[in-house]
Amino acid sequence: MARPRKSSGRMASKGFPNPIDVHVGSRIRLRRTLLGMSQERLAEAIGLTFQQVQKYERGANRVGSSRLYDLARVLDVPVSYFFEDMAPGVQDKTPSKLMGLAHPPAPDYEPDPMAKRETLELVRAYYKIGDPAVRKRIFELTKSIAKSYRDDED
Question: Would you give the end-to-end CA distance of the chain in angstroms?
């Protein structure tokens, strides 16, 4: 007699994608948009159709590990970027948790500031400044402000 199949955590029986897949898809869309890249261009870079990219971005299709690696490479982010800023309620929707399996506590993790949206937008805006002298003055001003905050904390 065949054993009943365990849930994959996809939540397909309820008719909607796993919230973690939706989060990963939203991070793909965010990064693609920040880079000014179209779905078509991203799809071409990773050997897919733009419809497949749309499905990833909506969370309708899961992103496999090799595809996630390709996406990270093309979007110039670490793989961990796709899991950053995930709400605690979403974190609880892993397949193993949905099946009732226990998880050991995760070590404290500080997300890479270079992968944050704010940092990416700041860098994009910075490089849109055409005059190198103005750009350098803004750079020096920012360093000076950061140093004054660091000095205040000491």
Answer: 69
